[in-house]
Amino acid sequence: EYFRSMPKLTSTEIAESRVAESDMSGGQFLDLARLKLPNVLPSILTLGHLEGLFLEDTQIDKLPDNMFTQLPSLTYLDVRKNFLTSIPESIGEHRKLQTLLLAGNSIFSLPIELGEVCACGGGVGVCLSVCL
Residue 103's closest CA among 69, 64, 55? Predict the structure, then answer.
């Protein structure tokens, strides 16, 4: 009976709570997979220390244009099973991204700037792995 009287949290409220927790703890990974979000929350873009971001099956349809410049430490991004149709050209300004999972979206072409991520990866054998 106690739990029935408690208010139900929305996916956005749960996600904001996880973002705040990651910000306070300095966590390197943020898992928001399967939370139904209207978009990439602006608060996520304040977590410049993030290395891994899991947004699989969140129903997002667009990545913010400044996402890759706001998250400079990101090495792993999972955006599988969403409604994406494109990737921002700003991905070419990113220097650490190593894994980008895109399967299950409606992306038919990738920005030419994606090649710049591989060319400037920072070391021998460091290149971006993209899974469509």
Answer: 55
**Res 42 pLDDT > 90:** yes
* Phi, psi (rounded to 5 degrees) for 31: -110, 110
Q: How far lies 63's CA from each of 55, 79, 86, in Å?
A: 11, 9, 8
Task: Note the pLDDT tens digit of each residue in 18-41.
Answer: 888 887 777 799 999 999 998 999
Q: Specify the pTM.
A: 0.82
- Least Cα distance to 79 among 106, 113, 48, 54 occurs for 54
Cβ-based neighbours of 124, under 8 Å, separated by 6 or more: none
Name the phi and psi angles at 84, rounded to 5: -75, 140
The region, left, alpha or beta by phi > 0 then psi within -120 to 50, assigned to residue 104 is left
